[in-house]
Amino acid sequence: MKIKAYHQFKKCYENLPAQIKKKVDNKIRLLSLNLHHSSLHTKKIKGCKGIWEVRIDIKYRMTFEIIGETIFLRVVGNHDEVLRRP
Q1: What is the CATH number of domain 2-84?
Q2: Which of 16, 34, 37, 83 could hold 20 in an S-S bridge, CB 3.0 to 4.6 Å?
């Protein structure tokens, strides 16, 4: 699938530590190959129709939505902050 990022995702990504950016880059690559890859821990966010969550690590998450054949990355960051405004 094609991957595109909203402006908000890019803004959040810029503020991440370098080691987390590497993890995010890897997860994006996996996401483009297989939405349900086991290391992504992909799941729908309850109460947010059409928005999904991917686990970066124990502390970080990113969210996305699928429109047609494209995955749109929404936000990335601290677990609690991301899930407050997915």
Answers
A1: 3.30.2310.20
A2: 16
